[in-house]
Each structure stands twice: as structure tokens, then as C-alpha cells.
Amino acid sequence: MRKILLWGCLVVAVVGCSDKSTGPQNPPAPFVNTIQASLSVNSGAFITNTANASNTGFASSNDAGGNLIIDITSTFQQGTMALKLVNITTPGTYTINNGGSQYIIGKFTIGTDVFTVPAPPPIKGKLTLEEYDAFKIKGTFFMTCIGTNGSVELKGGIFDGKF
User: Fold this and answer.
1) Quick one: residue 150, left, alpha or beta (phi over 0 = left, psi -120 to 50 = alpha)?
2) Which DSSP helix (H) or strand (E) runs through 120?
3) Dist. CA 64–CA 67, nearest whole Å
4) Contact indicator for 48, 36 with CB cutoff of 8 Å
5) SS3 breakdown of the chain: % helix, strand, coil, rounded to 5?
6) Residue 63 pLDDT more than 80?
7) What is the pLDDT of residue 13?
8) Torsion region of 87: left, alpha or beta (phi above 0 gives left; psi -120 to 50 gives alpha)
9) Phi then psi dihedrals of residue 115, to 5 deg
10) What value, to the nearest 5°, has the Cα angle with vertex 34 and ends 152 and 95?
């Protein structure tokens, strides 16, 4: 009788601890820095561009004056986009090239031609910072960059990267 009782307790313990998983679980995909925007050169058709990993750059540093500098860059098929955020750390929407102690510079380069966002008015670019900490930055943007050879418009822009 003692063996039957012990065997019954063992069966209950094993059944009570059964694994209810549905099979092997896949680990989450690794994080990849991403910048995406629809881009038009000289009022041409908009082309959606996505830059990942080695085609993006996210860097955070302090200059000699103690200002926090965040550089966001990407290489698209048409050229190179750059955003420089100075002392921008609080989520919110900022006008690009507005000056002051907190500001953003936006530019696009095609070969040797440099296109920059002019100072307002009118407003030619905005950036919305959604998330920022010492390791990561995420947000959205649009901007129209003007140069001697025309313009480059970026709309629906997103960035999500780690420093």
C-alpha cells in the first residue's frame, strides 16, 4: 500500500509540472539601426529610402563648450542625409535650423552639392524626438534642403538607433 501511495504522489507531481510550451521559442531579432524617408530631388518623384546598420550612423558626444551633440547620418541611393541635434534631449517637436541654445541642423549631400535647411520663416523642417536616453534615440522628421543646384525634400522620415 505504501508503494502505491508513493507511486500515486510521483505521478501527480510529474503531471503537475508538465511543460505546456508549444515547441522551441525563437530569440528576438537583434536590434538594427534604421533611418527611413521618402525623398524627392528637384521636385521629382518621391522614392522611399531605408538605410540600416552600416549605412547609418548614430553618435553622441560633448563639444568643448559642454554642449551635447547627437549626429544622425544615413547613406541613401541619392546621397547622404545628416541631422545634428545640439542640446536636444527632451521629447517634443523642434523646428530644424531655428537657432538658440537647443537647435538642429539638417542637410543632404549629393556628390559635392550640399543642400541645407534654411532658417525660418517659413518653416522648412521639423523633428519630433520620441525617445532619448544615453544609449538610444528615436523620432520622426521632415525637411526641405535648399542648395545652389535645387532642392531635396525628405518627408515621412523616421530614425531609430543606438549610440
Assistant:
1) left
2) none
3) 7
4) yes
5) 10, 50, 35
6) yes
7) 45
8) left
9) -115, 130
10) 50
Please compute Rg for the chain using Cα positions. Answer: 25
Find where cell 520663416 sits. Answer: 121
pLDDT tens track for 7-46: 444 444 444 444 555 667 888 888 999 999 999 999 999 9
Query: What length is written for the chain?
Result: 163
Q: Identify any residues that bridge with 123 across adjacent strands, giving them in sequence order.
A: none
Grid coordinates given for 64: 568643448
Q: What is the pLDDT of residues 92-130, one digit of tens each?
A: 999 999 999 999 999 999 999 999 999 999 999 999 999
Q: The C-alpha cell of 24 is what? A: 522551441
Check: CB of residue 16 under 8 Å from CB of residue 9: no
Share of the chain above pLDDT 90, in %: 80
29-39 burial: b if 16+ Cβ within 10 Å, else e: eeeebbbbbeb
> What phi and psi, each to the nearest 5 degrees, are found at residue 4?
-65, -40
Q: Is the dihedral of CA 42, 46, 52, 58 positive or negative?
A: positive
All three cell numbers of 35: 533611418
The number of C-alpha atoms within 13 Å of 12 and in the hemisphere containing its C-beta is 6
Predicted confidence at residue 27, as pLDDT, reads 82
